[in-house]
Sequence to fold (400 residues):
Amino acid sequence: MKVLVVNAGSSSLKFTVFHITDGERRMLAKGNIERIGLKHPNFIYQRAGDAKTEIEVTIKDHAEALKVLCDRLVDAEVGVLRDLSEIKAIGHRVVHGGEKFTSSAVVNHEVKKSIRDCAALAPLHNPPNLVGIEACETVFPGTPNVAVFDTAFHQTMPPSSYLYAIPRELYERHHIRKYGFHGTSHKYVYGATCEYLKLDPTKARLITCHLGNGGSIAAVHGGKVVDTTMGMTPLAGLVMGTRSGNVDAGVVLFLIRNLGMSVEAVDNLLNKQSGLAGLADGKSDMRDIISAAHHGDAHAQQAFQCFVQRLTSYIGAYFIVLQGADAIVLTGGIGENSAPVREAVIARLGVLGCFLDKSANAVMGQAAVVSTPESTMKAVVMPTNEELMIAIETQEMLTT
Ligand code: ADP
Fold:
């Protein structure tokens, strides 16, 4: 079955085409249409095995972007389909499913209404996700669409993990609670790591660390999330590229009350000017932090230490939450590629029975065990593949 995976943002449409059968999962083509509705929209396209191409296109909305994409997919020279009817289903990344969605859902009128209802919880993401779905309904009439939610995998958390200690009414009337994000990635690496380490997925205890520009950790037992670091929004938890992660809520009050900042200014400060960038003079990219730290930049050194401190304190907490763990899993751009981050993190985990294998840790972007054989808790690098997870979920929703 050929599945199109769509990740629609306010001015972009990322896509991947997969061929999925029980025995085979193959990426056929992928790309991104950027600056939709803005000046000079750009179409990046790559067929598996070919070089990436980039051209300027004339489009004004997501439906037109999809039509441009469709033309390319059936192009005699660079396409991957004979006919668009080969696409049997479309899987969509949807950021927030609230409490309504504990798994993926085949899109119908009611599902679209629920995605719209959750927009208050993800105002920047859910509306464009819905635009992507509706564009596909227009361009692929009759082809089923499946919504795959970033929050769904975390819906197994118990109230002791998801409730904030604020008046209960705020949860009951306004749905203020921890939801968690990156669920598709946590789910993918949980499954892939169980397979890789030959662990029983109904019993394994894994601490999955998704470390990209945004980052989150999940404590997963038997395929069920028990706790995670992001909250009602993706601002909570780890020190991220430009996001603060956890700060005392009193800081927000201070900024407003004592420094006279507006709500928008605080939002911008905590989401866009904080994290690594806030601590290291605007450097949000871990490669820049590491290189500056090596050259003696004290702010970059501190930012690196704060990143590792926050990360390892959660790993310790989740070891208790899970009452022991088979492995920690490192994924996302930093987890998959940064040997120095992994080394600094694992150096602190000896107390939990996890010791670094320095030569194995040289790995970049591929699955590997990077702890020593005598470690009682393993450390594993596992590349994530959120698009493939969405394609698998889409296929499963339509065939089971
Ligand atoms: P996003 O969350 O935007 O999907 P990614 O998962 O691509 O982000 O991760 C981006 C992060 O990965 C950046 O901080 C980048 O510095 C980091 N990264 C990528 N490659 C390396 C590397 N070789 N060494 C250190 N960090 C890396």
Observations:
- The pocket of adenosine-5'-diphosphate is lined by residues 212-214, 241, 285-287, 332-334, 337-338 (CB under 6 Å).
- The chain has a mean pLDDT of 96.
